[in-house]
Amino acid sequence: QVQLVESGGGSVQAGGSLRLSCAASEDTYSTMGWFRQGPGNEREGIAAIVAGYVTLYADSVKGRFTISQDNAKKMVYLQMNSLKPEDSGTYYCAAVRLWLWSAGLSPSRYTVWGQGTQVTVSS
Fold it and tell me: How confident is the model over 90-112, as pLDDT tens digits?
């Protein structure tokens, strides 16, 4: 069972940047994703990386967020720039042993989840 641990959350002013990290206990996943859940909202897909090179982004974060991974370190990152108050929420890392070429932003397709890290963006 793959275990995921997120880190890097925090509080930042609008326009600022944060880098989230996700440490995986194994490197046998095929797709890794980042998801966000605000108070009273459903969990939404933000970014995903498939087979280590195909990236998917939600329209709301395109051009501002970048997902990347380092297989040697079993790490996945989410660089978040130009943050907005609406980016606030709990961010989760997730993994699945499937290539989700077009469904990488669908939370229901993932089988392993981290515990989440909080991001707060103030205006």
Answer: 999 999 999 999 899 999 999 99
**CB-based contacts of 49: which residues, under 8 Å, 6+ apart?**
31, 32, 33, 55, 56, 67, 68, 69, 76, 104
Dihedral Cα 115, 14, 54, 111, nearest 10 deg? 20
- Pick from 36, 44, 56: which is nearest to 104 by CA? 56
Cα 108 to Cα 62: distance, rounded to the nearest angstrom: 22
- Sheet containing 18-24: give its strands across: 4-7, 18-24, 75-80, 65-70
What secondary structure letter does DSSP report for 27?
Answer: S
Rounded Cα gap, residues 116 and 123, in angstroms: 23
